[in-house]
Amino acid sequence: MGEDVLEDEPAASEADRLLDRAVAFDRFSPAGRRSLLAGGVALFAVAFLGLAPALWHLLDTTVLLGAPAVHPPRAGEEAGAFPGVYTAAYLVSVAPAVGLVALVFGRLSRRPGARLPTPVLLAALALAVVQLAFVAAAWGDQFTGRALAESLVSSEVSLWGREPIERGWYVGYAGLCAIAAATAFAAGRTPRWRRLALLGALPAAVVLPWFLLSGAYVLGL
Q1: Secondary structure (3-state) at 26
Q2: Which of 30, 35, 155, 204 could form a disulfide with 53, with the two C-beta atoms 3.0–4.6 Å apart?
Q3: What is the tens place of the pLDDT at every residue in 126-140?
Q4: What average pLDDT is seen over the chain?
Q5: Long-range contacts formed by 110-116: CB under 8 A, 24+ apart
Q6: How far apart are CA 121 and CA 58, in angstroms?
Q7: How far apart are CA 116 and CA 132, in angstroms?
Q8: CB–CB of 56/152 below 8 Å?
Q9: Dihedral, CA atoms, 162, 166, 168, 171, nearest 10 degrees?
């Protein structure tokens, strides 16, 4: 066991060095780093307070998804109504993470060990901030009791749109865990197989939580 630990340490150290080289925050001056931080805070606020509620409202009113705000389900068809809204809410809730992994992995797989170009790094950071805001938007507040259900009400999402959006968004938490596991699995492969491993693991990580936790919306449970 001791030998395994000693063998793992150089690999972990090498991964850390590659990550540091790819990100290379020392490319920014102290003033630039402060600007990055300020921009990240501003983007988080916009995504948390504006983008997420706007997306919920869009999911509630889009005709192609069933538009629960306009077309309530018929009597007896309430359970599992609007599977399209559930699916779209799930995909929207994990989209920044999928984009982040695809962007960074795609770039590094073409040039292993290279530094990420500044525009790519900024785009990756923006996706990470937006994903964090999407997670925070549904997180319960222990002081006020406000969680996603209350946020949907305040965003004027219809009664029939709230349940599929809430379920899809919360299932996205499981999706994010699966995406993180898929990314870690692919990162642990040899450079030759890393990209292929991600191409196989990432779609499965996105689809499985959506399907297994769908309840009445897909499985009919």
Answers
A1: helix
A2: 155
A3: 999 999 999 998 886
A4: 84
A5: 112/18, 112/191, 113/18, 113/21, 113/22, 114/21, 114/22, 115/21, 115/22, 115/24, 115/27, 116/22, 116/23, 116/24
A6: 29
A7: 21
A8: yes
A9: -160
Q: In the 8-state DSSP scheme, what is residue 62?
A: -
First to last CA, the chain: 45
Number of C-beta neighbours around residue 119 at 10 A? 8
User: Which residue reads 């001791």 in tokens?
Assistant: 2
Per residue in 69-103, pLDDT tens? 998 887 666 667 899 999 999 999 999 999 999 99
Q: Are 114 and 22 in contact (CB under 8 A)?
A: yes
- Strand, helix or coil at 76? coil
> Do the Cβ atoms of 89 and 168 come closer than 8 Å?
yes
Phi, psi dihedrals of residue 158, rounded to the nearest 5°:
-65, 165
Q: How many CA atoms lie within 13 A of 51 on its CB side?
A: 19
Residue indicated by tokens 């919306």 = 217
pLDDT higher for 20 or 128?
Answer: 128
